[in-house]
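Friendly challenge for the regulars: who can give me the structure tokens for this chain first? No prize, just bragging rights.
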Amino acid sequence: MDLRIDGARRVLRPLIDHPETKLTMNRSITVAIALAVLCLSAAAQPNQLSVSVSPNPAPLGATITVTAYDAYGQGLFTPFGCLISGIYDAPNGNSVALFPCTFLPGSIPPCGSTQPPRMQQWNQTTMAGPATPGTYWIEIQHSLGMFAPINSEWFCVKIVDPLSPGPSLSALNAPTVGTTFNMGISWPSEPGAGYFLALSGSSNTGIAIPGGIQACLDMDIWFQLSLQGFPLFQNFIGGLDGTGSATASIVLPALPALQCVPFHGQAVVLGAAGTEVTNDLLFTIN
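First reply, four minutes later:
Bragging rights claimed.
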């Protein structure tokens, strides 16, 4: 297991040393900035939507449900009625599936509202037939008001063959301020595999991982801190146990400013059969 953890560190090193992610500040300054970011979360987050994608990972043929709230209650609308604007092979990439939409804007309820979220489903039908295993990118367009400029946010879903699903990342409890949020990494066929986990506030561009792997996360302050061993992020690098599982945790400060802030989490697992990424775990702090 130690050799595989060393392998995870070797894969991780180019990301830590990347100009966009390397932190050159000393630790005390880093902590001060991180806490400032926590207190100004809404301004710091590129994602304005609190989104869930379920199931994720999704077995072949399963209907995928996407829901969305307006994370900061700004009065967001979907400009063309549909919640899902399209399914793509990459952000701003090739279109895989399109959805017939109206030209009637639809409001997105605010996070914390008693209203049900906006919701739409995808039955894994593509323009080429049924979807095949892989990572797909869901585009959601929104505007600040009915006739304001349109912005896009992107969210990953991983479709898997149930006979060889690969690694997965799941929430083990609710992410609530003032508590510890636990995430489970699982790959039962790869006990002892090394892994590392990272966070980001969005998945609008993705990251190339050494070895030709594309992750869903973006290089932002959360990505930096989660790779640098910031103390709020525990067990973000390690090895799977004898059952092929591990638990990573986030210590969530009791800061009301964190409520309704959306995040993405994803792990890279170095198995004997090869290096793979988990699904993108979407979670919003309560």
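The helical segments are 2-17, 27-39, 41-44, 221-227. The chain is about 15% helix and 40% strand. Your move, everyone else.
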